[in-house]
Amino acid sequence: QVQLVESGGGLVQAGGSRRLSCAASGGTFSGGAMGWFRQAPGKEREFVASIREGAESAFYAGSLKGRVIISRDNAKNTVYLQMFSLRPEDTAVYYCAVYRGLGSLGSLGSYDYWGQGTQVTVSS
Predict the structure, then answer these.
(1) Helix, strand, coil % in the chain, rounded to nearest 5
(2) Cα–Cα distance list, 60 to 20, 65, 103, 124 (Å)
(3) Residue 40 CB coordination number (10 Å)
(4) Which pLDDT does position 35 carry in this prediction?
(5) Do the Cβ atoms of 15 and 83 come closer than 8 Å?
(6) Integer distance in angstroms from the first to the last C-alpha of the chain?
(7) Coil, helix or strand at residue 110
(8) Is the pLDDT of residue 81 over 80?
(9) Mean pLDDT over residues 89-100, rounded?
(10) Which of 34, 46, 63, 122 ranks highest by number of CB atoms within 10 Å?
């Protein structure tokens, strides 16, 4: 069983930055593509960013492009999400997930292991 543990969430002022981490371990985790999603209160979970195994390709949601950077350290089995110029509407629980190898990298259904999430709250 693959385990994902997110960290780095917290309270941040609008305009600030935050870096989230996601550490993967166990099971059959082979360091494949991974993604970040977020879910705001009362809204559906949505795609934020994804990154290929070799970090040669990264994909971003249009609404966040330019304000987030996804990266990874394969030696540590850790994926990061650096967020800039945060806005109150970025308040959400942020989740990382492992891509199962099929389907769109931007689709929730393409991921089969999820972490518990880390709360990011942006104050105005």
Answers:
(1) 5, 50, 40
(2) 16, 6, 16, 24
(3) 14
(4) 96
(5) no
(6) 40
(7) helix
(8) yes
(9) 96
(10) 34
Q: Any idea which residue has 């082979």 for tokens? A: 30
Cβ-proximal residues to 20 (8 Å cutoff; 6+ apart), any chain: 6, 7, 8, 9, 36, 80, 81, 82, 83, 94, 96, 118, 120
16-72 pLDDT, tens digit per residue, is 999 999 999 886 656 689 999 999 999 999 999 999 987 678 999 988 889 999 999
Q: Is the pLDDT of residue 122 over 70?
A: yes
- Amino acid code (one letter) for 66: G
Task: Give the C-alpha separation, 46 to 38, whole Å.
Answer: 5
Q: State the Cα–Cα distance between residues 21 and 40, nearest whole angstrom.
A: 19
Q: CB–CB of 37/43 below 8 Å?
A: no
Question: Confidence band (pLDDT; 50, 70, 90) for 2?
Answer: confident
Q: Which two tokens stand for residue 6?
A: 């997110």
Q: Are strands 118-123 and 10-13 parallel, antiparallel or unpaired?
A: parallel
